[in-house]
Design a protein that fits this description.
The complex is a heterodimer of chains A (about 150) and B (about 140). By secondary structure, chain A is α+β, with helices and mostly antiparallel strands. Chain A has 6 helices and 4 strands. A 4-stranded antiparallel sheet of chain A has the order 2-3-1-4, with helices on both faces. Classes of the chains: A alpha+beta (about 150), B alpha+beta (about 140).
Amino acid sequence: MATERTLSIIKPGFTDKETVIEIDAILKDAGLRIVAEKNIKMTRDEATEFYEGINTKPFFQDVIEYMTSANIIVRVLEGENAIDHYRTLMGATDPGEAAEGTIRKLLGRNKQENAVHGSDSPENAKREITLLFDERALVYTSTLTSRPIPGFTS
Amino acid sequence: MPTERTLSIIKPDATRRNLTGKINAMLEAAGLRIVAQKRLRLTRAQAEGFYAVHKERPFFNDLCTFMTSGPVVVQVLEGENAVARNREVMGATNPANAAEGTIRKAFAESIEANSVHGSDSAENAATEIAYFFSSCEIVG
């Protein structure tokens, strides 16, 4: 399996600290690393471009309204097989159908307010990451072993 | 399977409730040997250094406050696949998701006060062990 990167979004209404900590616990146990992160409010133009793959669907305008309604946390996650792995951790789109222990089962309210987004393919991961992040931003926690070791006396 | 070492910490919520022995018993029952162990009160700087990898995370300050709120017991565990074995016996970070029979299912109070820490990879285990122990303190 290859190390991959995927784009994750914590959706409007789920960016409070307690909820983020619950999501982080699941990522941590799964061994996915957060290599870039920002808290933004998407513009209509950004959301329209981001969701261009579903722009003929009847629910497209609702998605744009919702995703631009409040701040979101966008992240690049890195790890073995990250795209599929994160999709498994998220669970089914409809929280009612999501498996036990998944993020959407734990936190989702309905098919739209289902807490998180994750890229669905390597092509879309690349497109979504490029759309939302500058390549130079994708670094800060990827060097997990380079932690500073201050003087320690037992 | 290779013999490995991993760093374990019994956190302040567990030392406060006098659970050190019960947790050690679960670790030993899982086939892990405690080859080094000491009880410490972490300073803020020590906690921040240990968790430096999490410094951008929203829980970083609360985590460091919690980890310095009482004594901890830091340990080196040794055994076959010790890193993964310890993570299995600890259970999920969120006790709500932890499996039956795990330390966190039995004892954890919350995501933060979840009784134990364990290294997440062999690489980090080496760094974390070196953070707390010198080689002459580890007796395999």
